Amino acid sequence: MNDVINLLKAHKSVRKYKDKAIEEEKIRSIIEAAQSASTSSFIQAYTIISVENKENRAKIAKLGGDQKYIEECPLFLVFCADLNRHKVACDIHDVEMQEGYTESFIIATVDTALAAQNAMIAAESLGLGGVYIGGIRNNPNEISEILNIPTNVYPVFGMCLGYPDEDNDIKERLPMEVVFKKDTYTTDGDLERLKEYDSSIEAYYLDRTKGMRSDTWTGMMARMMSHIPRPHMKAFLEKHGFFMK
Amino acid sequence: MNDVINLLKAHKSVRKYKDKAIEEEKIRSIIEAAQSASTSSFIQAYTIISVENKENRAKIAKLGGDQKYIEECPLFLVFCADLNRHKVACDIHDVEMQEGYTESFIIATVDTALAAQNAMIAAESLGLGGVYIGGIRNNPNEISEILNIPTNVYPVFGMCLGYPDEDNDIKERLPMEVVFKKDTYTTDGDLERLKEYDSSIEAYYLDRTKGMRSDTWTGMMARMMSHIPRPHMKAFLEKHGFFMK
């Protein structure tokens, strides 16, 4: 439809990078683009940390699920939801910040994600590729200690970026009718659509692995969702001032 | 730096729209772009509802903070974090979904925001403008009832889109050094930077309002953060299965 939409639709995760640094001006453009994203009531509730220190990278790679590309990628960014500087603003104006509300947690988390997605798109427009790293929530206490992350701030995800040294397939998404509804939430017809999607995903994996892997979307989701997901997150967030009041 | 980054950096909220429908194929491109965003372990944990029904639009506009543009915009999308179809996937494969964990809440909320930001960028690339509507969290119970939103799903935000009938200024963001850190989280020098930013924002409002409004960023944040933010969200989310376990 246009070049921007073609770029968005061409997204695929990239986990293998050329041994080539990203130019400083490109990094600045990526961060500027991130900052240009929408932000709830101008709150700008995020901080982006670029981890250059090699030792810390290695530690985070291990803590983040033993993902080597965290260590190897030219640029590794940690996106933190951040209400710390709003606390500073309250201090400056001698008022008390209302801390620990679920709503503030949502605002800061969404703000962070919108900025990050702009960063990803900006990076891809510059010929880079990357991947989000939810794995930093595997060991958020240790990672927060390494990065010196204070109260009212939490690391939401990481992002590896670099010049691509692999070309993955674009993964077919759910049928549009499953995720896009008119007027009200309804699941009419979705079961059939999910079955068709399962067949399509199954064919994709069979083809890609020459018959070695047979998998479906509902199968993958059932496996994943039947395991307790990172049960330490609640205690970790509370420690960082996000009490879900 | 390139056209995509220029587009990202040119973002401004648009709340006034021409009386012109958005072409169906453009809407489909916007949703396709949304679906192309990164998604945690392929979970695709969101549903987008386009509210066309005029009565419901009017109700939501009122419930969402009496924002007329929710009623008037050509396209109003409600972005919901959605783990309902993953429950269906678990049912299909006869396993029990682990529900109510904070981690799942984060995954679904982030997935939704990434998709939404792609939608916003796609829309802007097509000559449209828009604004996120956090106001749907003012009355999430009523809005969920109108939209028939079930357990394991919650409306994160809305989005108004249309052909712009106003041209707002781009709002200056925080100095990059405040939000972008090397290696560790540090606030060294930030107080000075915030003061400079305050001066710049103050000058902007004075200029724009011909001296009628004097405001600073820390002042706005202090006012906002000293009020309890949507304290009903916790109970609402629990009602919808998000227990923050």
Automatic annotation (TrEMBL), chains A, B:
Keywords: Flavoprotein, FMN, NADP, Oxidoreductase. InterPro entries: Flavin_OxRdtase_Frp, Nitroreductase, Nitroreductase-like. Pfam families: Nitroreductase. One of its GO terms (molecular function) is oxidoreductase activity. It comes from the Bacteria. Residues 9-163 form the Nitroreductase domain. Signal peptide: none annotated. Belongs to the flavin oxidoreductase frp family. This is Oxygen-insensitive NADPH nitroreductase. It comes from Clostridium manihotivorum.
